Amino acid sequence: MGVKTYEVRTYGCQMNVHDSERLSGLLEDAGYVRAPEDAGEGNADVVVFNTCAVRENADNRLYGNLGRLAPMKTARPGMQIAVGGCLAQKDRDTIVKKAPWVDVVFGTHNIGKLPVLLERARVQDEAQVEIAESLEAFPSTLPTRRESAYAAWVSISVGCNNTCTFCIVPALRGKEKDRRTGDILAEIEALVGEGVSEITLLGQNVNAYGSDIGDREAFSKLLRACGQIEGLERVRFTSPHPRDFTDDVIAAMAETPNVMPQLHMPLQSGSDTVLKAMRRSYRQERYLGIIEKVRASIPHAAITTDIIVGFPGETEEDFEQTMHVVREARFTQAFTFQYSKRPGTPAATMEGQIPKEVVQKRYERLVALQEEISWEENKKQVGRTLELMVAEGEGRKDGATHRLSGRAPDNRLVHFTKPDQQVRPGDVVTVEITYAAPHHLLAEGAVLDVRRTRSGDAWEKRNAAPAEKPAGVLLGLPKIGVPEPLPAATGGCGVPQ
């Protein structure tokens, strides 16, 4: 019969990317191998869709993709299609009704069941729909097929206790459930043992960690504990909520050398009126106060955010308040989105839906302002000497420009001149910044220093055997880094969508 191949297609947030690495690990544990990158659509024995329910028209996109696979499945006896993730949790039996050629539908809480459900569908020759109502196992406890040799996600909590009116994720991922601190640290130590030198702590509302286990300072303690792990060079986290951003977290960031000077903190709106309608539990003054404290403690911190333009009821005055916060906060980068209705959310039925053309004009004004600020802030980096962790696949033009790319401690993307000696992803180089653009920096001079690392060794070992080289998860929306150190597009929940 031969070895069966698989392909995982991932849409949406970092939580889904993390889950997909686990789905890949589960399938490989069950004897599947990843389909070659150039295999073409429909040429894997198992195709898994890990879906997102936050995107507008997410369901249409899914059914369009499933429709394209239907004739391919007919022509390929034994091929199986599985649908998981938030849209599966939300639509359940609807998926099989609309696409009866789907073999397995599973939810966000029971990803560990995928191999069993595929086998059951094959033996019984009928679709298997199994949606757990609560978490069966933390994703991080399952086998994994990581996409990077040098960087890794570590899930510290799942679910969310917030009730933001634009977000459906808490209904699909459930209430917040925290993982034991000892389990988190044990996983990080194991990853470092495999050559990982950068980890990103992941949670739907990452800095609320501890609310489930009854310790309000658990997150800051976790950051400090990460600082004690030998060989762990960089610690990041995404995405925090301003409500839970307490002074002890800022102190832990400032005082723990391997916690990077980078913060992604969703704003969503600068208007107190709109924030109240969104059920965001902070106001403009509180948000700017956090920014001020972070900058006082960590002067070189790069702060990024998410902003929604055109939320129902947003007036011109409300929008000007958002523009005011952007001017005051001086974000390194902002992920800006035009509000669109998300089925199943309270905001979708609110009065005062804003006309598309009004939202578009406000959006363009906001983007123009943020571009100007991003460029001005990046220009301040010119002349600085920075240590970069060399990245894989971050510079689309690196081949043509004879450059390599890496991430600065604050997560800015830097393209640098390729040195004469070999430099591997995961190695660390020291460069001087010579030029700034709004979304990247250049180091056009010679590299000042190259430090070969255990992460570089791990990358080299992984890539020594071509058969072991990962084909790469197919991501639906913007991907930044491996793993995405900056959030991708967001619908506004704690982990960007």
Mean pLDDT: 88
Q: How many helical elements? A: 15
User: Regions with pLDDT < 50 over 5+ consecutive residues?
Assistant: 467-497
**Structural class by helix and strand composition:** alpha/beta
Number of strand elements: 22
**How much is the radius of gyration in Å?**
22 Å
Give the overall silhouette: globular
Termini separation (Å)?
A: 39 Å
Give the biggest sheet. 7 strands, parallel
Report the portion of residues in β strands.
15-25%
Helix content: 25-40%
Would you kindly provide a brief summary of this structure?
With 497 residues, the protein is of the alpha/beta class.
List keywords for this structure.
497 residues, alpha/beta, seven-stranded parallel beta sheet, single chain, 15 helices, globular, seven-stranded mixed beta sheet, 22 strands
Explained architecture:
Keywords: 4Fe-4S, Cytoplasm, Iron, Iron-sulfur, Metal-binding, S-adenosyl-L-methionine, Transferase, tRNA processing. It is built from 15 helices and 22 strands. The chain has helices at residues 14-29, 58-74, 86-91, 93-98, 114-124, 169-173, 181-193, 218-226, 247-255, 272-278, 284-297, 316-329, 356-379, 398-401, 454-464, and strands at 5-10, 33-34, 46-51, 80-85, 104-106, 128-130, 151-155, 157-158, 177-178, 198-202, 234-238, 262-264, 302-309, 333-338, 385-390, 403-407, 413-417, 428-432, 435-436, 441-443, 449-451, 474-475. Strands 1, 2, 3, 4, 5, 6 and 22 form a seven-stranded parallel beta sheet that branches. Helix 1 links the parallel strand 1 and strand 2. Helix 8 (218-226) packs parallel to helix 9 (247-255) and helix 12 runs parallel beside helix 13. The longest helix has 24 residues, at 356-379. It is globular. The model is unreliable at 467-497 (pLDDT under 50).
